[in-house]
Amino acid sequence: MPKEVFLFLVVIVMAAVTYPLRLLPATVISRARFGRYMQRVLYLMPYTALTALVFPGIFYSVGDHVYIAGAGTVTAILCAVLKLPLSATVILCVLCVYVLLILV
Amino acid sequence: MAARQESMYLKGVKDSVPIVIGYVPVAIAFAVLALQTGFSPLQTALMSLTCYSGSGQFLGATMAGSGAGLAVVAVGMFLINFRYFIMSTCVFARFKALSTLRRVFMSHLVTDETFALFATNDKKYVNVPYFLGLFTTPYLAWNSGTWIGIAASSVLPENVTLALGIALYALFIAIIIPGCRADHPLLPVVVFTAVLGSAAYVLIERAAGPEYTSWAVVIAMVSGALLGALFIKSPEEKRAAAQEGR
């Protein structure tokens, strides 16, 4: 399969999997009933999903500059701990990485 | 009535501003990454319109770029976006009467951030104009950011595109950390997931090859949630316990 066709199929598959996940609870299942344990799993899943995406991916997010990415990670965690708004955390983290890229 | 609806819509737009400011740089970063991975500008723009999931698009683009098959992409997408199932349930359980057509369009706009704002808001904000203000503005921002990224990717200095690569991760950290505060004892679960994810990544990369590393994400997120659920109460349980006056 040519790469262009394959990547087009990837886009379609991504939408075909994602949209029903949003649509079904809104239409068919107005109030899904889950057991106590499953409710806990569903509550934790967004946090574990994001965590698993960040670690270790974040360290490889600035090309080969693992240490600069590490500095960016610390910046983002500090911003979030200090309760800065989402946008400030993102902007300061990117800025920190950018400045370090220029300096190093 | 019309004036009230308009003010509700504008209030929604106003409340979405922090989300918008967070989305634009991340969308630019996504577009740059997708183009680098080999997606065409049209495919990249289409993905933002039809998938509209920061972490999902990021994962999908990375997986496809590392040579994963369609089935692996589909499984990864299901696992990473399954949370929308729960979020959409929470959002639409707040509406009493709503036409199916509206549900079909509105549900596509549910994201981590819009859900978090809407689900924790006062009841007086559960109406269609406010919803549209809060949910459509980030959607426009996400897609505009993608187009900006596509248009600018060739002119952006290398250091800028490199630095933007961390933007999405910073947004994720900003969402995770508030859950780790004293009233939500999630810190052990988050640390466990991070350690397991990193260990699984290194092991899989050495044993199977870099094209399989996206499975580390799946293994860590599922294990973290299944184990954490043994001892962490859901907000529903806490609410029920509080109502019983304990």
Strand content of chain A: under 5%
Give the helix level of chain B as a range of percent: over 70%
Main sheet specs of chain A? none
User: What share of the residues of chain A lie within helices?
Assistant: over 70%
| Form type of chain B | globular
The count of helical stretches of chain A stands at 4
Order of helices and strands of chain A: HHHH
Shape of chain A: extended
**What gyration radius of chain B follows from the Cα positions, in whole Å?**
20 Å
Number of DSSP strands of chain B?
0
Task: List low-pLDDT spans of chain B.
Answer: none
Please provide the ordered H/E string of secondary-structure elements of chain B: HHHHHHHHHHHHHH
How many structural domains does the protein architecture of chain A include? 2
Query: Over all CA atoms, what is the radius of gyration of chain A?
Result: 19 Å
Q: What profile does the largest beta sheet of chain B have? A: none
- Termini separation of chain B: 43 Å
**Whole-number tally of structural domains of chain B:** 2
Strand content of chain B: under 5%
